[in-house]
Known about the structure:
Elements: E1 4-11, E2 22-25, E3 31-34, H1 37-49, E4 61-69, H2 77-91, E5 102-104, E6 109-112, E7 118-125
Amino acid sequence: MTDLLWYATLKGAPRTKKNHQQILKNRSGRPFVAPSKEFLVYQEQCLWQIRTPRRAISEAVNVKAVYYMPDHRRVDLVNLLEATCDILVKAGVLADDCATIVAAHDGSRVLLDRKRPRVEIEITGMEE
């Protein structure tokens, strides 16, 4: 059995970075793609809920994320996982979201909970 390294339940309807991306221009006028405003609001809400560990996790781990969506709309699990990992890196929970650290997403799935949308995240160490 692998050890539980970190766990959190983040309240709010999960959002992806890829839906409704914005094309903006930097100061020199060069265009770049930015995440949607909805994702930025969701990310800020999540950052307030996350208790950052003393040290960012830098060993190989499994990030299991169970998403409870408020409705039956089609959602891309891979995009949800990407957004969650990016938030965990920004919060300092993970040192990076590269494949050497986030080695798996075993057990991740999308379920329905109309009254309490959320994501339950469990980070466990990988067996050798």
